[in-house]
Amino acid sequence: MNELIKVNFDKEQPTVSARDLHEQLNIGKRFSAWFETNSKGFVEGEDFEGAYLKVQGNQYGGEQEIQDYNLSIDMAKHICLMSRTEKGRECRQYFIDLEKAWNTPEQIMARALKMADKTIEQLKTDNKALEQKIEQDKPKTIFADAVSTSHTSILIGDLAKLICQNGVQIGQKRLFEWMRQNNFLIKSGSSRNMPMQRYVEQGLFEIKESNVQNPDGSVRITKTTKVTGKGQIYFVNQFLKGNTLEKRC
Questions:
Q1: pLDDT tens track for 83-139
Q2: Cβ atoms 19, 53 nearer than 8 A
């Protein structure tokens, strides 16, 4: 079908410029007065919406915006009918034929596929934004997970499990080794695996003493290294920020 007047198909329903229609109908009446008369009975936001058209403003090449309106095809057909001219009948028939083509099964399917593509692209954008937010919030989540278990002191083996739950793969043996290598725990001697005094003073560790009765009836004192709530948060975040171990979990 030859294009008699330009139709905009960018939106869900096709629209036509009121100024283009005014020009095509060869209306001698000023555009603003013509539109005011012909828009009576129509609802803005449903049948038409305001728009602005950029035109050359003066001989020096300046540009200005003039008032225009995007009309629904139904409104455009009504205006053509009201013009009672041969040109009006021609334009009205053009719009009728255009609507028939617009509502063929092929065109309906094409619009549905186009809308589906837009939806898919929007979902991709939304998912990407969600993934970025999850990544940004990960340190907060890990910190919160550590805080949730920090109300009591725990064994180093339990700390290893907590670190693993928060994203870093490590076992009890490797954690003990890491702490010795990094001088958190004493490396050798009778106090091996006991915390260094400065870290006890900093509140990262505490030493739990227990009385154990020997078979001969004597009593011995055992000492166990435990990680405080403050220490749990500290070590979880150390492993989160560091690159010393393989990240997984």
A1: 889 988 999 898 888 878 777 676 656 656 666 677 778 888 877 877 777 666 565
A2: yes
Q: Strand ranges (DSSP E) for 88-204?
A: 154-155
Could you tell me the pLDDT band of residue 243, with boundaries at 50, 70 and 90? very low
Strand order in the sheet with 154-155: 154-155, 219-227, 205-213
CA-wise closest residue to 142 among 229, 239, 226: 239
Q: Is the pTM of this model over 0.90?
A: no
Can you give the C-alpha Rg of the chain in angstroms?
Answer: 39
CA distance 76 to 8: 13
Question: Two tokens at 170?
Answer: 């490590």
* Residue 243 Cα distances to 118, 168, 174, 178, 247, angstroms: 41, 10, 15, 13, 8
Cβ neighbors of 245 (< 8 A, separation 6 or more) are 168, 169, 170, 174, 178, 239
Amino acid letter, 188: S
- Rounded distance between C-alpha atoms, residue 157 and residue 242, angstroms: 20
Report the alpha-carbon distance of residue 13 to residue 150 in Å, rounded: 59
| Helix, strand, coil fractions of the chain, as percent rounded to 5 | 50, 20, 30
